[in-house]
Amino acid sequence: MTSHRQEPFVDLQALVARALEEDVGDGDRTTLWTVPPGLKTQARVVAKAPLVVAGGEIFIEVMRQVSPLVEVRSLQPDGASLGQGELVLAVEGPARAILTGERTALNFLGHLSGIATLTRRFVDAVDGTGVAITDTRKTTPGLRGLEKRAVRAGGGVNHRMGLFDMILIKENHIAAAGGIRTAVDAVMRENDEGLAVEVEVDRPGQIEPLEGSGVHRLLLDNMTVDELASIVDLVQGWDEPRPELEASGNMTLDRVAQVAATGVDLISVGALTHSAPSADVSLLFQGLDL
């Protein structure tokens, strides 16, 4: 499938600067008034529950911006599976700086590791089927690049990065164009860039008009397992090249294995980025240099 995919640019420095401004403002009063200025410490970031690591890079950037004297060492790469109590990162430096950056750094790490952890659960649920778990554009504005990296850390694959790198004709496009084949034919005439073309269908009757249209992928939205299996059989009878089949809509861990067994190629899960619970991580002081 042809694609001009390009990951959204993530300006870590600017993102972290905004996050610290939001949290620290003009000063961390509690730390300034309770922690001696020369105190140094070592700390460890610990997984308080099983997780898949993602976001170590931005944790390091938070601590760097708070103070260049803080040293952070990654003990696990993004994508590593950890059990409860295992160490994620080692931190050393001024206690004041570590405490000031702690919550912002952990918020990023927990959010991204949560996405990676949930993704891994879906990937494991379809293991052995050959089906790929993919994300959607249902991401946090401004954090899409990081969240999609976290999906990859969990073993998933990325869908389109934005509106610019792939064509996805959805129900409102179809309605505005005057019909599904009309919309597809219009795209095919204009698509000089060779972008991959996907069409959303929400009922089996929309499938047959797309035979021979040249679309690269069909998005099968909110269909039953029986409907998906029937469409797989139908499309397998088409001449090559046949479009990939992507199942989407209300995908849960309880249901995803049944969907994968129908023979679709991909399953998209919006929950990976819009509903993943934050991973439980904690920063604990290990030693104080008095």
List the helices and strands and how they pair.
Layout: H1 12-24, H2 29-34, E1 40-47, E2 51-52, H3 56-66, E3 71-74, E4 81-82, E5 87-94, H4 95-125, E6 132-134, H5 144-153, E7 167-169, H6 171-177, H7 180-190, E8 197-201, E9 217-221, H8 225-236, E10 244-248, H9 256-260, E11 266-268, H10 271-274, E12 281-289
Parallel strand pairs: 6-11, 7-8, 8-9, 9-10, 10-11
Antiparallel strand pairs: 1-5, 1-12, 2-4, 3-5
Walk me through what this model shows.
Helix 4 packs across helix 5. The protein is an alpha/beta fold and 290 residues long. The longest helix is centred in the middle third of the chain and has 31 residues. The strands form 3 sheets. It has a 6-stranded parallel sheet. The protein has 10 helices and 12 strands. Helix 8 links the parallel strand 9 and strand 10. Helices cover 38% and strands 20% of the residues. The chain is elongated. It has 2 domains: 121 residues, Aldehyde Oxidoreductase, domain 3, CATH 3.90.1170.20; 152 residues, TIM Barrel, CATH 3.20.20.
